[in-house]
Amino acid sequence: MKFFMSVLLFLLLVAMTSFAYTRWQVSQIELKFPPVGQFANIAGAKFHYLDVPGRAPDGAAVLFVHGASGNLNDQRGTFEQALTGTARLIFVDRPGLGYSERGGAETPAQQAERYKFLLDELQIDKVVLVGHSLGSASVVAFAVLYPERVKGLLFLAPATHPWPGGVNWYYNVASLPVIGHLFTETILLPVGMASLKQGAKGVFEPDPMPSNYVESSAAALVFRPDIFRNNARDVAGLLEFVTAFSPRYKEIKAPTVVITGNKDDIVLPSIHSVGLERDIEGAELIVLDGVGHKPDYVGREQAVSAIKAMLD
């Protein structure tokens, strides 16, 4: 009994130390990577976005939606300079990620509704939507639900269709009600920060990762406990959503381009990218030879050309 109590006290001490370290590290991460844009009150929740001035011939804007574990700095880092002046550019933190509050927007359809409310707030009528990876699910939902607001669609390594298998174990653990809180408030952040650079390299493979990517993308923001729990629910709930919603993709009539790499082993092109080409009438599929899961960076030239063509 005495041994059991000693072990229990030791584990409690470790947990309390990990919790205190996590709280301190969160404050350091937020000091290093503060909000870079503006805030709007959308459906009663704080929504973080970056509004870059510019004007397309018909006043359309471009809305960029990042993928899992990201924030608006990811897409900003590859597209802002390349497209500044071409049109008004809106980079968003998806609800519950970056510095946007969740506000009840759990599904891609609910997140798409928040984009629509933001566009209303900014008095933007039509947009070209650009979605990377998991962010593509809310982009395709937007196109189905609000077709009158869509000028064009660009999908980059999209995650939009049912796939065999599941997701990494830590997403399932982090999305659980009680265990998820314990996991994210104690173990996640120190382990995540230690493996951050290697994990980011894995997303780019087999392509080289830009040397400043971890810093410029503010990737560490995802390891804040509440943010990672939101991220985990997004990933863990994606399969159920796309299984139910994907039959509606055939309703989309907007000009659509899908860019993917044939070496992407994170989101399989043969299921998602090929699926969008099949389901959306007239969609153009561009397959980049030897490219992995980051065609937004590695295939930026093709992506920028597609955006400009839709704006014109």
Mind explaining what this structure looks like?
Helices cover 47% and strands 15% of the residues. With 312 residues, the chain is α/β, with parallel strands linked by helices. The chain has one domain (6-311): Alpha/Beta hydrolase fold, catalytic domain (Rossmann fold), CATH 3.40.50.1820. It has an eight-stranded mixed β-sheet, sandwiched between helices. The mean pLDDT is 92.
Mean pLDDT: 92
Give the CA-based shape: globular
User: Separation of termini?
Assistant: 75 Å
Q: What is the overall number of helices?
A: 12
Provide the CATH top-level class: Alpha Beta
What is the total number of structural domains? 1
Give the low-pLDDT segments.
none
Order of helices and strands: HEEEHEHEHEHHHHHEHEHH
According to CATH, what is the topology?
Rossmann fold
CATH architecture heading: 3-Layer(aba) Sandwich
CATH homologous superfamily label? Alpha/Beta hydrolase fold, catalytic domain
Classify the secondary structure makeup into a structural class: alpha/beta
Biggest sheet architecture: 8 strands, mixed
Roughly how much helix do the residues carry, as a percent range?
A: 40-55%
Strand proportion, as a percent range, falls in 15-25%
**Biggest β-sheet: strands ordered side by side in the sheet:** 1-2-4-3-5-6-7-8
Number of strands: 8
- Determine Rg (CA atoms, Å): 20 Å
